[in-house]
Amino acid sequence: MKFLEKYANVILSSVNLQKGQNLLIRTEPVHWNLATIIAAEAYKRGARYVRVDSNEIENSLLYKARIENSDEKYLEYVPAFRTETQRLMVKDDWAMIVVVGTEDPDILSNLNPGRNTKAAKAGAEARKPFRKAMQNGIIQWTIVFAPTEILAGKIMNMPPSADAIDKLWEVLIPILHLDEKDPSAAWVKSGATLKRRTSVLNNHKIKEVYFKGPGTDLKIGLSQKAVWEGGSLVSANGIEFSPNIPTEEVFTAPDFRETEGRVRITRPVLVPAIGKMIEGAWLEFKEGKLVNYGAESGKDVLDQYLAINPAAAYLGELALVDSNSPLFKSGKTFYNILFDENASCHIALGSAYPGCYEDGEKMSDDELKANGINVSNLHTDFMIGSPDVDVRGKTWDGRNIDIILDGQFVGIFNFFT
């Protein structure tokens, strides 16, 4: 239990909860124990009020019950209080912690695609204002992971059990720096390395990033005003926070009109909007748009995902991670985007983070789109990196630079604090 209290304090330091601030914790009921510990520690830090929420989006069992049993005419219904509550939370400057780690990653695998898409589309649209507030840094937020028996068994390749969770925590504790005297300080140090890397990337003014490897030959174009981010962010009211624990990535917003080529997805992806897994996928782009795709399993998940919103066929994020990431070094596939995206370079189909474009937070959706910054009610990361995939860049002044070779940052990008 002590290490969970330690973890809770790392999480609260990550979101940088302020004295007198309200806190929302979103999670599945299976993580209620950790949510309660976070709440207790939050109150010790001076939180005004803590709410733990698990609606049908966070509760896979409840969502499954709805899709399988509801009258179809009600699947697109979203109660008004949901969006109104989110609006008030933004207005009242709540902080938010999302604890991910589904109780059963395969529980939604057999849902009727048409019924699932209806509900998912309505839910994504209803959450769009809250997502926009997150992406614009109006509120502080952080996403963290906690294991479940079934998920731990899948990750550790053993029967689902409490023992599987214990074995997985043995892997997670060093990744999360919970074995260190001051884990929060360790994350500050790690964040400083990411900040240095973003500074180098921003100074080079990269025009194009190339990924080349087995099944991958991809060019991603960037605007002259693209901004690389990594480590902590700063909210609209000036509070520094980290959106992910762990975080090993540096990322930017590509020009969604400037992606060309084919890419192999190197890790399984559990698509949150659909609740289903994609494995062995590949994507092909032309003039920025996803024009062809396939998968060893889960192609129908991509079909459903793209049907929710047309803008999901374009890129909103490009992120770089190398094999020095402790998540990659663990040798595990986590079947969870938070952890798997921090083990590998990745791209996102869907919305961009406006802060990754100069003055993007001040722009309307139409202004963002006019400048090549994707706007969507969806955002899902797809991992494309591996030691077999090299990453190179071309600057706006015509220089060619190596970024990641043989799985590791090279030259000016390879340093540690």
Structure notes:
With 417 residues, the chain is of the alpha+beta class. It has two domains: 2-175, Thermophilic metalloprotease (M29) (Thermophilic metalloprotease-like); 198-229 and 246-413, no CATH class. It has helices spanning 2-15, 32-44, 60-69, 80-91, 113-135, 149-156, 162-175, 183-204, 299-308, 326-329, 337-341, 365-370; strands at 22-26, 49-53, 95-100, 141-145, 206-213, 216-221, 229-230, 233-234, 240-241, 250-252, 259-264, 269-271, 276-278, 282-286, 289-294, 315-320, 346-350, 379-383, 390-395, 400-405, 408-409. Strand 8 (233-234) and strand 9 form a beta hairpin. The mean pLDDT is 93.
Structure summarized in a few sentences:
This protein is of the alpha+beta class and about 425 residues long. The chain is built from 12 helices and 21 strands.
The residue ranges in which pLDDT falls below 50 over 5 or more consecutive positions are none
| Span of the ends, CA to CA | 32 Å
Task: Please tell me how large the radius of gyration is.
Answer: 20 Å
What's the story with the biggest beta sheet?
A: 8 strands, antiparallel
Measured as a percent range, the helix fraction is 25-40%
Estimated share of beta-strand residues: 15-25%
SS summary, helix count:
12
- Overall geometric form: globular
Number of strands: 21
Name the structural class.
alpha+beta
**Overall number of structural domains:** 2
Mean pLDDT: 93
Give the assembly state of these chains: single chain
Strand order of the largest sheet: 15-14-11-6-5-19-20-21
